[in-house]
Amino acid sequence: MSAIDAALTSRRWAWRPATEPIPPAQAAVAHGEPARALLVALAALPPARRADLRLSAAADWLVVLGNPATMPWVDGIRYAAPAAQAPMLWLPTHVSPDVDAGLVFNALKRRHGRTPLLLWAAPEAVLPLDRAQPADEATLRAIAARWGLPAAFPVATEDATEVTVAAEGVA
User: Fold this and answer.
1) I need a surface site. Which of 15, 16, 34, 90 has the fewest CB within 10 A?
2) Contact 83, 95 (CB under 8 A)
3) Is the CB of residue 62 less than 8 Å from the CB of residue 35?
4) How many structural domains compose the chain?
């Protein structure tokens, strides 16, 4: 029995391809190397483009909350959105549980005691989203340090953006 199955002890369940209308994505989710690539891509964005994004990170996971149109794309990311029946439960947009999302949410909330929660299919994970931080320089550097990336992790700043714009205007 998987960890997610254990959280739903009253009934076994499985993931199935999403069959209901897919809600608009509100988060990008990456695991492993794609998570690191997404962090690097986010750090390269000008601060103004990151302004409305929030980040939640765990070991080998990065969740970027906000408008996907403002997020960088990297190979290997997937998307998530709040479940229509349980808005505090975020699910992948490509698959859904074969049981009511409200029941899933209630079981996970009892087990984890935090909300909102992201329930992910593969690899299986339950990630709390309640401590998401702004996608600012300090947050990006803190995640990079936690993941053991170089101390000189490059992050675009307002000054760098202004220099880039000035250089593009001259050329």
Assistant:
1) 16
2) no
3) yes
4) 1
Task: Render 71-122 in DSSP notation, one character per residue.
Answer: S---TT-EEEEE-SS-TTEEEESSEEESS-HHHHHHHHHHHH--SSEEEETT
pTM to 2 decimal places: 0.85
Residue bearing tokens 């302004």? 51
How many C-beta atoms surround the C-beta of residue 153 within 10 A? 16
Q: Please, which contacts does 55-60 make with residues 24 or more away whose CB atoms are closer than 8 Å? A: 55/132, 55/133, 55/134, 55/135, 55/139, 55/140, 55/143, 56/118, 56/127, 56/128, 56/129, 56/131, 56/132, 56/133, 57/143, 57/146, 57/147, 58/125, 58/127, 60/31, 60/32, 60/35
Tracing tokens 């009511």 back to the chain, one arrives at 100
pLDDT at position 6 over 60: no
Tokens 């992050």 locate to: 155
Mean pLDDT of 56-75: 95
Alpha-carbon distances, residue 138 vs 59, 128, 154 (angstroms): 18, 20, 12
Tell me the pLDDT tens digit for each residue of 119-155: 999 999 999 999 999 999 999 999 999 999 987 889 9
Q: Select from 146, 147, 148, 104 the least CA-distant residue to 126.
A: 104
